[in-house]
Structure formats: structure tokens, C-alpha cells
Amino acid sequence: MAQLAVLLIIVVALAGVAAVVLARRRTTLDAAGVAKALGAAAEQLAAGKAPQARRRYARLARQLAGGPEELRTQRGLALLGQAEATIPTGDQQATLALHREAFPLLTDPARQLPRWSLLRLAEERTQAPDGDLGPVLALLQATATGAEPGEEAETAARARQWLQQLCRDARPEQRDHATARALAALPGQDWPVLARAALLSATDRAAETEPLLAAAAPHGSGELWFRWGAQLFTLHRDEPAVAAFDEALRRGPGEPSPWGRGPALRTDSLLFRGLARQRLGDTDAAWADLAAAAGESPSDPRPRYALGRLALLLGADDQAREQFTAALTVRPSFAPARFGLALVHERAQRHSEAAADYRAGLGQAPDWRPAR
Q1: How are the residues of the chain apportioned to helix, strand and coil, as percentages rounded to the nearest 5?
Q2: What is the overall mean pLDDT for the chain?
Q3: CB atoms inside a 10 Å sphere around CB 201
Q4: What is the pLDDT of residue 368?
Q5: What are phi and psi of 113, to 5 degrees?
Q6: CA-CA distances (angstroms) from residue 176 to 170, 213, 258?
Q7: Distance between CA 105 and CA 80 in Å, rounded?
């Protein structure tokens, strides 16, 4: 009798194990099965059966939680469907929680999530000490062609400002990550390119700047063309630099950003085009550009200083003195013009005046070795 009881216990246990195995086999999910289940839930939701659809989506999301990596995206869709089926309840917090959970699983959250949810998720990220940049980037992607006036536009502007500050002021490794993500997520916008170029230059990776700007400039504003021209000028590739500055002048400033020159773009483009033309030996065109730059920004001493240097090169020392003096008039602390004026005095054998100007220049720029 006792043996019979033990045997019955074993049989029941084995039956239980078999039932579990069979159940697991029946609930094993594959892409086709998940797609079918998602479709059935969607049909229920479309038919106005939101509670039933919500339960089906929730069950599917739970089943997929420990599923294979290839079903990760479909779990995101299940959560997205569950959120949509939750909307009729009026529980926005529950809906947002489902969107938050689904976000990293979605292939294109900027298009898959409703705009109100993107606004909330982006605001959450900007107020958190760390985390993924995805919600902020998704909002900026969604509003790239224009945000609705009011809350949407204001939130998008705050998110963009927050991301730009991160790209500009964070630690180098954070800036590296943020600029790379912004560049990949926001094609066709100037500021991620300018931010990335600034980061590369600041971290001794200037060699990466050239292909970046070469690829981006043709599709950008004058800001990108100027930055591309400046890169070429630094490499002493003066003919293409002149062409780039031409295009910068033609296109003009783009959208304002911490890396843009804004109204100063025209002055800077004329100035650097003049310097490039000077190195090419086209002194007449160089003089015209530098004079135009001085006219654009009378309070900027750099064009006057550049004119003074060109005048020295041409042997026109009186004109050089005029230009250096004009530069010092608008900014008395501009040491390069002080050194230029000292050189004019030295060439004219006015040694006491030259020495005085050299001393004054060294007081403003003590590391300028030629004046010592």
C-alpha cells in the first residue's frame, strides 16, 4: 500500500513536469508568433475593446521580457500597444511609464511615440544627473522641421540649449559622447557639426575635423563653409580656402548656436579670405578684402592689423603706421598692433619709440618672444 502511494506521487510529479514542459513548448515565442499576437491585440483595440487589448499587450510584454534579443523590438511594440490601450483610462502617468519602458526598445521613438510623451521624457532627462541622451535627441528629431508654438516649442528650445551646453561645457569624455550622438541624430543641422569640430580641435584630433567638415559643408550654412575654409587655411591650402570663404559670404549665417559667428561671419570671412589671398600673392584682392572687413566692423582691430602687416609687406610703412594706429585706437590693449607699430618705428630708425612700443606690447603679451 505504501509502495502504491509512493508510485502515485511519482506519477503525479512526472505529469506535472510534463505539463510544464508542454506549456513551455506551447508558449515558446518566435517573431512570427509575436507578430500574430500583436496583430490580434491591435484588432481588439481598433474594435473598441481597449481593456481586452490592454491585457493581451501586457501578457505579451511579460512573456517577451526574458525573451531572445531578436524579439527586443517587438517587446517595445507590445509596451507601446499597452500604452495606447491605457489612454482611454485617463491614467496619463501609467501611459507615460509604459512609454518610458518602451523607449529604449523602439527603433524610431521620435516617430513612434506621441509628441506629448516625448516632451515629458525629454524634460525628465534634462533634470536628471545622468542617463541616456535618447529622449532629448528624439524630441529634437521630432521637432526638427518645426515645433508647435507654446509648450512644445519652449520645451524643445530648452532641450536643445541643455544639449548644446553639455556639448560645450561638460568633461571631455562627456563632450565626445554628446557631440557624436548629436551629430548622428541631427543630420542637416549646423550646430552638431560645429560642436564636434570644436571638440576634435580641443582634444588634438584635428585630423578628424577635415573629413567631417568636407562632408558637412556642402549641405550647411555659411557657418560651416567658414569653418571649413579656416581648416583649409590652417593647412595652407589657400586656393580652396578662398573658395570656401566665397561660399560662406554667399550663404550667410545659419541658425544661432554657441559655435556660430552670427553677424560677425561676414567680417571673419572677408578677413580670412584676404589673408589667404595675401599668401597666394594676390595683394590687390587681399587689400580689398581686408579693407572691406575693416569697414564691416570698425570696432574690430584685427582687419586694421592685417592691413598694417600687408602694408609692411608692400613697403608702405606710412600706411602700415596708420593701420596699426587705427587698430590701437579701437582697442589700446591689442598687443599685435602695438608690436607692428614698434616694427614700423624700428624700420624708420626711431629706436626709442620702437623700444617704448615693444615694452608696452610685452606688458600686454609677455610671452611674445620676438619683442624681447
Answers
A1: 80, 0, 20
A2: 91
A3: 15
A4: 77
A5: -95, 145
A6: 9, 17, 17
A7: 10
How many Å apart are CA 58 and CA 41, to the nearest integer?
A: 10
Least confident of 148-152, 202-206, 340-344: 202-206
CATH number of 298-372: 1.25.40.10, 3.90.1150.10, 3.40.50.300, 3.40.50.20? Answer: 1.25.40.10
C-alpha 230/C-alpha 275 separation (Å) is 11
Q: Give the Cα separation of 56 and 44 in Å (integer).
A: 9
What is each CA distance from 317 to 303, 321, 341, in whole angstroms? 17, 6, 10
Give the number of other Cβ atoms within 10 Å of residue 298's Cβ.
12
Whole-model pTM: value is: 0.85
Q: Express each pLDDT in 263-295 by its tens digit.
A: 999 999 999 999 999 999 999 999 999 999 999
Q: Write down the pLDDT at residue 30.
A: 86
Domain boundaries, the chain: 298-372
Write out pLDDT tens, residues 30-55. 889 999 999 999 999 999 999 999 99
Rounded Cα–Cα distance for residues 304 and 294 (Å): 6
The three cell numbers locating residue 236: 595652407
What are phi and psi for residue 80, nearest 5 degrees?
A: -65, -40
Conformational region of residue 350, where left means phi above 0, alpha means psi within -120 to 50, and beta covers everything else? beta
Q: What are the φ/ψ torsions at residue 315 (nearest 5 degrees)? A: 80, 15
**Whole-number Å distance between alpha carbons of 185 and 237:** 31
- pLDDT value, residue 28: 63
The owner of cell 561676414 is 266
Instruction: Please state the length of the chain.
Output: 372
